[in-house]
């Protein structure tokens, strides 16, 4: 199967049954997570989920359908609770109903106009026709020359590895951001506690200063009460 045919099949076929979409029982239905599956497969998944109590009833009265790829739930809204009432993937509907024919693009060599460029030099990153590939291999024997589909598969694998790395970095960044947010919440709680403690200390100092001022304004008497004046004893005259 050519590269164009594989891409066409990946877009126009259900990921569960691998059957091509159509306007009937294989109609493409779009889930909340963004994945698309045919009506027949989703109906069977909903039936099996209901029989094993995986399809739970929410507080709003709606049932949920679990995506078979990413496990994200999609609500089957009342009153029908039916997969048939999910939104269609209109991009795929328009694609499968359109009158078109997909042909693999033909790129011809500028040096040999009658020959297609079917090979790719991995070292030079350039397309080559069979004649140019032979000439290039003789001139640069250390270069790696592959057919176009093999080279495309190689770069797809590299892209998948890069995407997986980016997803891991993104998950790590998410954890760091969540930990930072939690740390900010702890710091905010500590700041509020310190402000409350500082306010209590400040109130105690003001109260102490108030008592001191009141003591200076109304001092208690420290002198004893005055005694009665002493009377002089009478002078006695000798006879």
Provide the fold topology.
Elements: H1 3-12, E1 28-30, E2 36-38, H2 39-51, E3 63-66, E4 73-76, H3 90-97, E5 119-121, E6 126-128, H4 130-139, E7 145-147, H5 148-217
Antiparallel strand pairs: 1-2, 3-4, 5-6, 5-7
Give an account of the 3D structure.
It is a single chain. The chain is mainly α. It is built from 5 helices and 7 strands; from the N terminus they run H-E-E-H-E-E-H-E-E-H-E-H. A 3-stranded antiparallel beta sheet has the order 6-5-7. A two-stranded antiparallel sheet has the order 1-2. Mean pLDDT is 79; it is low at 54-62.
How would you sum up this structure in a few lines?
With 239 residues, the protein is mainly alpha-helical. It has helices spanning 3-12, 39-51, 90-97, 130-139, 148-217; strands at 28-30, 36-38, 63-66, 73-76, 119-121, 126-128, 145-147.
């Amino acid at each position: 199967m050519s590269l164009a045919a594989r891409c066409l099949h990946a877009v126009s076929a259900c990921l569960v049954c691998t059957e091509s979409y159509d306007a009937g029982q294989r109609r493409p239905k779009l889930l909340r997570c963004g994945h698309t599956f045919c009506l027949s497969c989703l109906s069977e998944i909903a039936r099996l989920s209901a029989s094993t109590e995986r399809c739970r009833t929410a507080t709003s009265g709606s049932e949920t359908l679990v995506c078979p790829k990413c496990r994200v739930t999609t609500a089957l809204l009342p009153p029908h609770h039916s997969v048939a009432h999910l939104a269609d993937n209109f991009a795929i509907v328009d694609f499968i109903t359109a009158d078109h024919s997909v042909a693999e693009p033909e790129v011809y060599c500028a040096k040999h106009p009658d020959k297609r460029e079917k090979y790719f030099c991995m070292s030079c990153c350039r397309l080559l026709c069979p004649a140019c590939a032979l000439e290039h291999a003789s001139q640069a024997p250390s270069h790696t020359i592959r057919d176009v589909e093999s080279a495309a598969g190689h770069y797809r694998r590299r892209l998948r590895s890069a995407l997986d790395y980016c997803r891991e970095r993104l998950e790590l960044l998410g954890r760091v951001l969540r930990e930072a947010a939690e740390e900010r919440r702890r710091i905010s709680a500590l700041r509020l506690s310190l402000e409350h403690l500082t306010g209590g200390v400040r109130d105690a100092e003001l109260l102490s200063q108030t008592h001191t001022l009141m003591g200076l304004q109304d001092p208690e008497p420290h002198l004893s009460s005055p005694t009665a004046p002493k009377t002089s004893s009478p002078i006695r005259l000798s006879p």
